[in-house]
Design brief:
mainly alpha; 8 helices; about 50% helix; globular; single chain; 3-stranded antiparallel β-sheet; two-stranded antiparallel ribbon; about 220 residues; Arc Repressor Mutant, subunit A
């Protein structure tokens, strides 16, 4: 493995130095760089060889293997799979996390994973949008015109999460989303409703249809 790594490092170094050498050659045609380049390569390869040979076996193995995946998905599409979600650390958080997981649980626990993530997106999009409260709990508990923004808040039923599996899943989704996962499902939606209902939100445009919900954002 040491010999292989030496050869790999040498090839990379030769590529870089060759490009630099060609740039230097164009400056002066009167002096041939061949002897100087040969000496530089010999010195470089000798130093690389000595350095690699001096490295502990464990460090060489780690270098050859590359960095371990972090498990974070920020900036990339989420897998939206049960196995991936279950592989994450047990979720925990503050009051904002608790408000988000409860909203996911009561509004979307019967949906497939994308549908539950989509509801979380809407709540976080509202937090970031003008005209809405600037916290998760504020958005979830918002009320106006005699109605609650989320029906489970004012339906008169105790908000007990009686299904441990669904509660754990909602908590994991909330943790992922609060940690900055991309919101790629609803295209900036700040509203959603069940397919069977017909709310009047004024000038909105539909952005997605996921499971039993339709998603909207304010028309520009």
């Amino acid at each position: 493995m040491r010999l292989h790594l030496c050869r790999t490092l040498a090839a990379v170094a030769m590529t870089v130095l060759t490009g630099a050498a060609f740039a230097d050659v164009t400056v002066s045609q009167s002096n041939s760089p061949s002897l100087l380049m040969g000496a530089q390569f010999a010195s470089l390869f000798g130093a690389e060889h000595d350095t690699v040979n001096a490295m502990p076996e464990a460090q060489l193995a780690a270098l050859a293997k590359g960095p371990e995946p972090s498990g974070k998905t920020t900036g990339a599409a989420l897998p939206y799979s049960e196995s991936w979600l279950a592989s994450l650390p047990a979720p925990a958080g503050d009051a904002q996390w608790d408000c988000l997981r409860r909203a996911i649980y009561f509004e979307a626990r019967g949906e497939a994973l994308p549908g539950q993530f989509a509801v979380a997106e809407v709540i976080l999009n509202r937090v970031d949008a003008p005209g809405f409260p600037n916290s998760v709990c504020g958005v979830v508990h918002a009320a106006g015109g005699g109605a609650c923004a989320f029906s489970y808040i004012c339906d008169g039923v105790a908000d007990d999460m009686r299904n441990p599996e669904s509660a754990d899943r909602a908590g994991r989704i909330a943790r992922v989303m609060l940690d900055g996962a991309p919101r790629a499902l609803t295209l900036g939606a700040t509203y959603f409703h069940a397919r069977w209902s017909r709310p009047n939100w004024g000038h909105v445009v539909e952005t997605a249809a996921i499971g039993g919900h339709l998603f909207y954002r304010t028309a520009l």
